[in-house]
Design a protein that fits this description.
This protein is an alpha/beta fold and 548 residues long. It folds into three domains: 160 residues, 3-Layer(aba) Sandwich (Rossmann fold), CATH 3.40.50.970; 140 residues, 3-Layer(aba) Sandwich (Rossmann fold); 174 residues, Thiamin diphosphate (ThDP)-binding fold, Pyr/PP domains (Rossmann fold, 3-Layer(aba) Sandwich). It is built from 23 helices and 18 strands. The strands form three sheets. The chain has a six-stranded parallel beta sheet with strand order 2-1-3-4-6-5, with helices on both faces. A six-stranded parallel beta sheet has the order 9-8-7-10-11-12, sandwiched between helices. The protein has a six-stranded parallel beta sheet with strand order 14-13-15-16-18-17, sandwiched between helices. α7 links the parallel β5 and β6. α15 packs across α16. It is globular, with a radius of gyration of 24 Å. The relative contact order is 0.10.
Amino acid sequence: MPTVADIIIKTLVNFGVKRIYAIPGDSLNPIIDAIRRNKSIKYVQVRHEEGGALSASFESKYSGNLSACMGTSGPGSIHLLNGLYDAKMQHVPVIALTGQIETDLLYHDYFQEVDLVKLFDDVSIFNARITNPENASYIIWKACRQAIIKHGVAHVDMPVDVLRMNAPEMDFSYSIEKPDYKPDLKAAEELINNSKRPLIFIGAGARNSGEKIDKFAEKIGAPIIYALNGKGIVSDYDKKVLGGIGLLGTRPSVKAMSRSDLIIFLGTSFPYTAFISNAKNIQVNNNIEDFNRVAKADISCLCDVSYFLDNINVNEKDDKFYSEMQSEIEKWKNDIDKKASNRNGTITAEALSYEISKRIEDDAIIVGDTGNVTLWVNRYINAKKSNMFFFSSWLGTMGAGIPGTIGISLASGKKVYGIIGDGSFAMTSMELITIKKYNIPVKLIVYDNHILGMIKLEEEIMGYPEYGVDLYNPDFARLAEAVGIKGIRIENYNELNEKLDEFFNYDGPAVLDVITETNETPMPPKLEFKVAERYITSILREKLEPKD
């Protein structure tokens, strides 16, 4: 008869889990051995459980499938939480397994005793402890199923003595049928036909529908703007694509939003409502909870973006709104090019990003970390036809870049680039060892400006003097070399092109450490726009007004 540990691993395999990110520990010994004996799942030894959870989260962002991570009793499992909140807030299915002390020692204030069920309650859509081997098969089946159906984190706590017990294996069906939403689109069609300046706003829910969006936008003459998770769905070189919106976005996107008479939201629940105009809107989403988050919907279409685009029957517009925006796009691109062409002094982030964008392959995947580097990626790294972009867009955690590239590289087998700030790189740099151990061919680019640039900007906006944001950094290229990974360092413009070419042509994992301008301040696309002013004012009010 199989053990509880055997049943847990077999169930994960049945639900399509390919690998599990973890660090071993005494409370995990039975399940580590079950992984060893099961040839259908791989154990990936990370160097910090936070990195493992982030790798699992980004793997699911890429694949849409269930991924898994694991921590041992007490501190090992506590470390998982940051990565799991990234998964929770981006609605991707991850199962977290936590080791636990023996059941007869629970509530004895024993060594490493932590109430992990209570601790994981907020992050989880399913949260349980296995205490009876007779029920183990059902609990792990339900955890996997709930994570997939509800698009979130499922947590199972596993006392080590229970893991060793024999248990009956149940034959539960694990097939999951997607809801077949087929709304009536007549009202949406009428609203689109009557609009003169429709605007398409895409998010992560529109992924894999890029060609359909392009044809639909051409037919109705709509410019395309995107939330952070929508970058790369349609090429940035398409004349209809204006770029991102919000503080990380572009001036043409802000202007198009202000001129539009109809916004068509495709698979997004963009949180920064201050940047959304009062135009009529159609919201298309397969998650009913996401309706009316951006703005009150005039028309809600509960369905996949692909179904909407396949079945919407609208008239072709002779006057193309996107044509009106071409002069704005050209002005914006000229401004961007001027900043990127500056070759005086220390290397600027704009110049570095511009050169990176020229070299990234058409089918590569880009992981952007959190901070000013998010803006450089969103604004300066142009998405080609088959590029994909991934971020910690809702949690916004620093340090997601390195583990994010690991998870996506293992899941995809494609070329993966991490574009990372120096503060973020230092946070999870121990995962360079994971990259070397498994020879994961990711390419990591560090924007090394020796400062927490976004925090510096926030201090300035709020009227505070710069304080506590300067960074002491090691030579990140030499750090990589110490681990056994190719390291390249760039300190001035004279060596920029040559060493970038060396980095991009190198076959294998590599770290590029680029010294960039410390005092560079990225600004919103147009601060004098009322919408941006309202946003800044709301931030100031929220942070500065005294609380009761």
